[in-house]
Amino acid sequence: MTGSDRRIRVVALGGTIAMAPRNELGGVAPALDADELVAAVPDVPKLGRIETDAFAQVPGAHLRLVDLVRLSRRIEEAFKDGVDGVVVTQGTDTIEESGMALDLLLNTDRPVVVTGAMRHPTQSGADGPANLRNAILVAASEKARGLGVLVTMNDEIHAARFVRKAHASRPSAFTSASAGALGWTAEDRVRIPLRPVGRVFVDLPDVEELAAVALASVALGDDGRLLRLLPDLGYQGVVVAGFGVGHVPARMIEDLTAVAYQVPVVLASRTGAGETFSDTYGFPGSERDLLARGVIPAGALAPPQARVLLSLALSAGWPAARIAEAFDVLSG
C-alpha cells in the first residue's frame, strides 16, 4: 500500500491553523472546520484518502486533559473503522501536553501526528497549510508506524514525549532539546532516521474526573508556602520544576517532604533540556536528598509532560513504583 492509498483522518480541535478573520474582540479565534483546513492544502488527493472530523473548535489554551481522553477514544474508533493514520490539528499553546496524553492513551502502532500553526491565516507567511500537509505525509508513511504519537512542525518530526515549545511566536518554535528531532520531511519524502525506545500505555478506566496534579516551578529564594497548600486544595499529585538537574532551595525542603508523604511528588527540571540526576549532588535540597525523601524523578520529561503522565497514572490507580518506572522507560 502506498501513501496515497492510505485512509488518513484529519481531526480538528481548533487553534491558529483554523483561525477566522478578526472578530468583535479585535482578534482571531478558532472558526474553520476540518474540511476547510484540508481544502487549503495543495494536491490533497496525492497524499491519501483524506477524511475529516471536526472534533472541537477551541483555542489550545482552553483544552483540558479530559478532552484528550475523549479524543483518544475517538481515534481508537477511527482505527477500528480501518483508518490507517490520524492527524490532529490544534492550537500550539498545549501541543506538548496533548501530544503526551495521546501518546500514553493510545495503544497502537498506527501513526498519530499532532500539528498546528504559529502564524494564523491572516498573517504573511502562514505556516498552517504546510504543517498540515507534512503531518498528512507522515501519518501516511510506513516509517511512522510504531513510534508513538508524533508532532510535526516546520518540516521537522518530533516524538511527543520530548517536544517542547521553545519560542512564543516563531515558526521554528518547536524543538526536542534533549533528544533532537526524529526526522524531517523534504520534497514530499518522510525521513525518520531516529527511533525512540520504550513505550508506556495507560489503560485508563472509565472515570468521571482525572486526578488533579499541580505544577509548581521553583524560583530563587522560594520558601515553599505555596507548595504546602496544594494537598489541602485537593491536588492528588505535584510536579516540581526544580533548578538544574533537580534542586530546590533549603527553605522548601521541609514542606516538600511533608507534601511527598501525602501525595506523589515528581521532580523535573525547569531548564528546558536535559534530565534530572539521581546520584551526583549531595547537599540538602539536591537530587540525592530529595529522592531519599520519596520524590520521584521525571528523568528527561519536561514539567508539562511529567504532569500529564502523573495525572493519567494516578487516575489509573498506579502505585508510586510503577509511576517511577514509567518515567525511566520514557526517558530512553
TrEMBL record:
Under the heading Gene3D superfamilies, the entry gives: 3.40.50.40, L-asparaginase, N-terminal domain
- A molecular-function term among this protein's GO annotations: asparaginase activity
Q: Can you supply a Gene Ontology BP term from the record?
A: asparagine metabolic process
**Keywords attached to this entry:** Hydrolase
Q: Which residues belong to any copy of the Asparaginase/glutaminase C-terminal domain? A: 213-327
What InterPro entries is this protein classified in?
AsnASE_II, Asp/glu_Ase-like_sf, Asparaginase/glutaminase-like, Asparaginase_C, L-asparaginase_C, L-asparaginase_N, L-asparaginase_N_sf
What is the superkingdom listed in this entry's lineage?
Bacteria
Segments forming domain L-asparaginase N-terminal: 7-193
SUPFAM superfamilies noted in UniProt: Glutaminase/Asparaginase
Concerning CDD domains, the annotation shows:
L-asparaginase_II (cd08964)
Query: Is the Nucleus keyword given for this protein?
Result: no
Family, per the entry?
Belongs to the asparaginase 1 family.
Protein's name according to its UniProt entry: Asparaginase
The species this protein was found in: Nonomuraea phyllanthi
